[in-house]
Amino acid sequence: MSTESDNAAAFGISGATGWLVGGTVGGALGAAAFGLLMWLLDPAIVEVAIPAVYGLEPVGVVGWGMHIVHGIVLGLIFGVIITREAVLGVLLTDVETESLSRTGVMFRLVGAGFVFGLAVWAILPLLVLPVWVETAGVGGEIGDFPTDAVESLVGHLVFGTVLGLVFAATVDLYGRSDERPLEE
């Protein structure tokens, strides 16, 4: 067994449901890191704009709570995607290129988290949020929401990277998939 597998077993999440814990914790910590970045740059995004998306008044830590819940949901989606046999098989496949063969599964999961963060940024704030704001009529405080700003991109990449790192550190993926689609 590898060290990554031993870490997951030490946390007690090496079974088939470990991805639930890894996705939840990774999503929450990734969202917290992203939220901290947003809060440092423009506190109104977390405190006002996020509740405004749902038509709520900015009260206390409602925006923070909603942002963490978004991260948990996205972390669980990441866990579902990563643990599917086709994706997991690709991540666990031995490759013949020297640079990729030196990367372990943990590094590949962090990379998958990074790509997931990029995909979330491309889909949710760039495509879904403008349509949601338009149809729900919640313009007001959300009008200046920086959906396509560099800060939003960097924040989503931080979210995905932290998610991938926590997921890789806590979830045992060995023995989960015997299918290796890229190996002959």
Q: Number of domains in the coordinates? A: 1
H/E series, N to C?
A: HHHHHHHHH
Report Rg: 18 Å
- Mean pLDDT over the full residue set: 79
Broad structural category: mainly alpha
What is the terminal-to-terminal distance? 24 Å
| Biggest beta sheet attributes | none
Low-pLDDT windows of residues: 4-13
- Number of extended strands: 0
What would you call the shape? elongated
Approximately how much beta-strand content do the residues carry? under 5%
Please count the helical segments. Answer: 9
Percentage of helical residues?
over 70%
Task: Walk me through this protein's architecture.
Keywords: Membrane, Transmembrane, Transmembrane helix. It comes from Natronorubrum daqingense. This is Histidine kinase. It is built from 9 helices and no strands. With 184 residues, it is mainly α. It has one domain (3-170). Helix 2 (18-41) packs across helix 3, helix 2 (18-41) packs across helix 4 (62-82) and helix 7 (105-136) crosses helix 9. The two termini are 24 Å apart.
